[in-house]
Amino acid sequence: MSGGLPARRVLIIVPAWNEQEAVSETVTEILATVPDADLLVIDDGSDDRTAQRARAAGALVCELPFNLGVGGAMRTGYRHALRHGYDVAVQIDADGQHDPRYLARMLERLPEADVVIGARFATPDDPYKVRGPRRWAMVLLAWVLSRLAGTRLTDVTSGFRVSNRRAIALFATHYPAEYLGDTVESLVIAARSGCRIVQEPVTMRARAAGRASHSPVKAAIYLFRAVVALILALVRDWSAQFEDGADQATMVAAAQEAHP
Questions:
Q1: Is there a domain that residue 3 lies in?
Q2: 9 alpha-carbon distance from chain centroid
Q3: What is the C-alpha separation between 27 and 32, in angstroms, rounded?
Q4: Neighbours of 80 (CB within 10 A)
Q5: In 57-152, which ranges are continuous DSSP H helix?
Q6: Can you give the CATH number for the domain in which 129 is found?
Q7: Is the dihedral of CA 239, 244, 250, 253 positive or negative?
Q8: Residue 164 and residue 114 in contact, taking contact as beta carbons nearer than 8 Å
Q9: Residue 154 domain-assigned (yes or no)
Q10: What is the pLDDT of residues 161-193, one digit of tens each?
């Protein structure tokens, strides 16, 4: 595959809410970097021209009738990936902060893992700095998830991720739809189901355009809610739900074989 990607069917999922100023450039860069991958923008109930600009830039677009949050948008994307038999699903933000040139390195890690996180803070010289209560919350989240996953994780809130078929089937049913701490809870779900999780160091960029949905106060609130989500996910009994999800994944796979 062009762009340094191995020969496999890759779906890049871009959740987008009111990102008309950035989505065109993001889509154009992704398609230029990984031209053999398919790109799906999930327009999460935007009230601007996000969908139109993404489509004009060359993306396939799924328009949700109202805002579900990143979790709901990503579950939609994973279900699309499962139904259409993709080998790999990639999550990239619409604001241009995630550099698609790191994808080749992240995909190289898949033989050893089911989920690969593009992680900030993974190297001492990483330019992305967070201080104060936000940093404390992120360190706590990373510490707990590292113990649960059995490997060192530094950035469990990163929305830059690669998932293989096993993780796609899991997330298509169980990806947390609530915007409470979807990135964190999804890793708990993956680890509890036996998925292997690793990280690959990446460097995040400034937003290409538009305005961040999280102010410093909102970001702190989000991290607090992520801690709450982590606690709830850790005490929740996932066994029966995993069995139900496996049954659904089996049904989808059978339908794909019957109607290729």
A1: no
A2: 17
A3: 9
A4: 20
A5: 70-83, 103-108, 132-149
A6: 3.90.550.10
A7: negative
A8: yes
A9: yes
A10: 999 999 999 999 999 886 556 888 899 999 988
Distance CA 7, CA 185 (A): 31
CA 66 to chain centre: 20
**Residue carrying structure tokens 């100023």:** 21
The DSSP code for 59 is -
> 2 lies in a domain?
no
Classify residue 203 as exposed, middle or buried by CB count within 10 Å of its CB (0-12, 13-18, 19+). Answer: middle
pLDDT band at 88 (very low <50, low <70, confident <90, very high): very high
Q: Structural domain tally of the chain? A: 1
By the 8 A CB rule, do 53 and 23 touch? yes
| CA angle, residues 161, 55, 97, in degrees to nearest 5 | 35
What single letter denotes the amino acid at residue 259? H
For residue 4, tell me if it sits in a domain. Answer: no
Q: Which domain range does residue 154 map to?
A: 9-258
pTM of the model: 0.82
Considering only CA atoms, which of 130, 226, 216 is closest in space to residue 183? 226
